[in-house]
Amino acid sequence: SQQGEEDPQALSIQEGENATMNCSYKTSINNLQWYRQNSGRGLVHLILIRSNEREKHSGRLRVTLDTSKKSSSLLITASRAADTASYFCATDEQSGNEKLTFGTGTRLTIIP
Amino acid sequence: KAGVTQTPRYLIKTRGQQVTLSCSPISGHRSVSWYQQTPGQGLQFLFEYFSETQRNKGNFPGRFSGRQFSNSRSEMNVSTLELGDSALYLCASSTGPVTGELFFGEGSRLTVL
Description:
The complex is a heterodimer. Chain A is mainly beta. Chain A has strands spanning 5-7, 10-14, 19-24, 29-37, 43-50, 55-58, 61-66, 71-76, 85-93, 100-102, 106-111. The termini of chain A are far apart. Chain B is mainly beta. Helix content of chain B is 0%, strand content 53%. In chain B, strand 7 and strand 8 (74-78) form a beta hairpin. Chain B is globular. The chains are: A mainly beta, B mainly beta. Chains A and B meet through strand 4, strand 5 and strand 10 of A and strand 5, strand 9 and strand 10 of B.
């Protein structure tokens, strides 16, 4: 079952623009992570934000977490063609089921 | 340091056959998790192994099984293949908690005809 639902399902923007994608989840979490997947390849870890953190930055990435709304957003600034990929959020639930539960993903296309 | 290695990368089987997929984690990583990815269901957790013990299992039928060896390499097996088993099978390793950062392999693309 999916814990996270990403929104939008697909997003196309011009190179140089900012891209924002959102993740909503259902149960209380310990941490939330974002991963990137290039077509048909493995996932690459981008960033982890803990439940007691509200915002985190890594290079051109900015992640926010609102535990009261059970949602997170990933902002990619100054997008590049190489950012074209699918982006997934993954949650570590407080229920202690000891696994990461992945969302449905956002397909991001950067138009050169 | 070498990344997570999965073999084979691509394979085609027919219904009723069985398949074994292999995963070599990053050196020093003792936890190995397996995920199934399909367009319809997304990424679904299969199981996780740590020090040769299965610590967690997802909601998959008994046809899906796995094991881990003393060198942390892991295999998963799917018996009596069904068309719906066609998927990208991803292996991930980690140093510590399986709920922390995962390092994924490139996956094994299984097609069942």
